[in-house]
Amino acid sequence: MSPSDTALKKWKEFLLDPKYGFKFIVNVSGTCYIGDDYFTDVIHRFSLRDSIEQKFVKSIRYVAEDSSGGEDEKFQKIYDNHIENKTVKYRAVKPITILVTKNIAACKRLTEKLIDFLAEKEKISKEQAAAKVLIVTSANEHKSNIPILRRVDDKDNPIEWITSVSMLSEGWDVKNVFQIVPHEERAFNSKLLIAQVLGRGLRVPEVYKGNQPVVTVFNHDKWSSSIKHLVDEVLEIERRIHSYPVEKKEDYNFDLYNIDYKRIEEEVEYPQEDPYELLKKGYITYSSQAEEVEKSTTYTRAVSGEQEVKKTLIEFKMYSVEEVAQDVFNRLLIFDQEAGTEYSKNFPKGKIAEIIRNSLERIKDKSGKVSETNRNQTLAAFGVIRRKGAKSLRLRIEAKDLIKINTREIKKNSLGVGALRRDCTIFYDDYSLRLGEATDRKLLKELEEDESLPRSALIKVENKYNFKTPLNVALASYEPERKFIRGLTSEETAKSIDAWIKSTDVGFYSIEYSWRKGEHPKQGSFNPDFFIKKGNDIVVVEIKMDNDVSDENRAKLRYAKEHFERVNDLQKEQRYYFKFLSPGSFDLFFKALRNGAYKDFKSELEAKLEQ
Fold first, then answer.
1. How far is CA 434 from CA 83, 151, 414, 437, 474, in A?
2. In this predicted structure, what is the pLDDT of residue 1?
């Protein structure tokens, strides 16, 4: 209850009036926070943890890991949860999903997007979709919606979705909330906001009293640590766990070929690119695509810490070749009219369509459709008419000798225990607890029993035959690596590969490269993150964040591709395939690895880097 300042002043005057002589004043609140600070004068606390354990409120599960790309993918997963609540889990009531934003303007934008999504997904009119959505803010235009909240739990009420602002002054009691979506981090970035937002969805409907239904918080996975504010980080003496090859019953070690180089530096000038020249090759570099792919979300239960993985079939927006060709042609025509050029004459719609079909053919796609990502690549390819020339330092290298190394030779890698509270992860299996040095086995056992660690700190691969690495443990230093190792150790992927190893940052398998940073030439070397053995093929993977498009990464990709082409030319025992990956393409990559299409696979990030 938040009365106005005038009412609050009168209430305070009444409480403090000496003629009444109140000796003690006790206030009851569900949100005893100012920002992240808990009130200092709390005399009794019945915590959220106690409430959940004693089943007075719903249990909470929130997103720990998610591979969603853009907003449309997130909407599809949120919708999938909503329909599951409606048709499977909580059919006795009408489940409601609430989406929470930071302010009124953001709430209005989100409401429009949600209505458009529902209309397209359910193939209904915008008016019909709008009837299912209620926007609740303190804006005058929405004040008439607040009384409607009293009836949204009724089964005959059409509202299934509520969009709201996190700092709503009005309290409201809706029992049928089974999913909460904090749409931006600012809607969920303090303990007060978390308490307020969760408070909207914790009440249990009468029909489920005695049971304990679950409310899903579909937060961005990067904010999962914000929800886990129940336990503060504990200072601990820095101890380290080490990763190194051990002798397993199944030998997962394998050979790799590298090259000893002679280095020669030279400056290269790149003139302004001309679409006539650029597109003489007759194709654009596309990334692998699919109309639909199964994507997973890992949810964590508050209090118990149990994790569950839910898979959702995500549909991607696809365009016909003709649609994309028309779009490109229209843009060229407009540019010609502005700049007095003749690009639209030299690239008529038929020629553009042919280039697009050739591009699809190169990624072995026979669908005749273009994904949103590749459509953008096409528009970007024809957008080079606006680019200027550039200079770059290039490292010319001459191969001297072919070198054979074995994964047994990889040096020890280590991770501080404190880093496990900051998004790092240890992957291990039954072998990890039996093989290796005694200090590492002892520490791993202690960590396994440490209930204060985040769930993501230790991930045990229950079936040791799915952990096809010669290492005792695999260390992931940030979230994309963790997601990738999860994919490598999944039952489906493990069946389709022979072995893999996570490389060290320095010293094991180094590739030199050079690039230009502003006006200054730079040289460096990098160790690809993963080597995956599949028969006589070696798939080499470098992992980056989504959209990490930089001149340095372009140089890494170019030099690594050239390096592995030389390795392939110098020997016939193995074939090497280098891939630049980011989390948005992991699911597609693992699908390609399983069905044998990995040789031609190109991630969205790699396609962008090659432009």
1. 45, 60, 18, 9, 15
2. 40
